[in-house]
Amino acid sequence: MQPFSRFLVYFLAVARHRSIRKAAESLHIAGSAINRHILLGEKQLQTPLFERLPSGMRLTAAGELLYGCARRWMKDLDDLNRQIDDLKGIRRGQVDLLAPEALSRAFLPELVSRMKDSHPGVVLNVNIRDNRQIYRTLLSGEGDLALVLDPEDMRDLVVIRRMSFPLGFVCRPDHPLARHTAVRLAQCADYPMVVPEQPLALSSVFERLLERGRITPGVAARANNVQMIISLAMTGIGICFLSYLDVMSEVTRGDLAFVPLVGANVPHLTLALVHDRTRQLSRITHLVETSVEDIMSRHVV
């Protein structure tokens, strides 16, 4: 069902693509028709909605207000349709899940596969976003559920489930360190290390731990990409400092070993499943929520 006027449909497309030409391509509508409706809307509202720049279309302050309202209207309509489907007992539809890239290697593929097997009629739209942007994106109505790492501002969110992933050292299964169930930083100082670099958040955490322990590591290599660090660890270049979440799939397959780091100053990585406090979750969304919770519970170290 599409209750919105052509103007709003065209307006949202232009705002999203920042271009009348790209909006026309996505909607399969002539660009002149889209431009005409935008101009008519601006005339009726008696204010410009876009700045027309050489680089494209940019929303004005009034346009930003309309865009936010239109997004909420669309989300409310989607919620209504899902609730009507629930009343009919129909288990079909889609759920938008926001998540950081760190979950894309093991956690999210498992979730999508599980949902496909258990509820083939439910489409799970996984939107990978910068972890720092997920909070704002969820509250703007662009997601039903979100997985957030180390959440801070939770005033407008409901935390459905949270769990902690330990930080530690990763090595090959035949490495002497792999025989330990847990280690202290001083025990690892004699082994060559692959050191995480900025912009990885683990870089500053690792530096603080080294300073507090007054430890100077033997650096075998440095890298600012988690996949690169994992690849170096698998070749035996050195041990590396990561979270269990980063190597979940490799540890499960037996390709790498993960040894938790213990000590008074060692933090944990927190993963939280959340939703907007102002929204009522549909039954379909609850299905996804249950699957996420089950996967989280099975991966507790």
Automatic annotation (TrEMBL):
InterPro entries noted in UniProt: HTH-type_LysR_regulators (IPR050950), LysR_HTH_N (IPR000847), LysR_subst-bd (IPR005119), WH-like_DNA-bd_sf (IPR036388), WH_DNA-bd_sf (IPR036390)
Chain ranges of the HTH lysR-type domain: 8-60
Pfam families: HTH_1, LysR_substrate
Ribonucleoprotein in keyword set: no
Keyword ATP-binding on entry: no
Annotated SUPFAM superfamilies: Periplasmic binding protein-like II (SSF53850), Winged helix' DNA-binding domain (SSF46785)
Keyword list, A-Z: DNA-binding, Transcription, Transcription regulation
Family to which the UniProt record says this protein belongs: Belongs to the LysR transcriptional regulatory family.
Protein name: LysR family transcriptional regulator
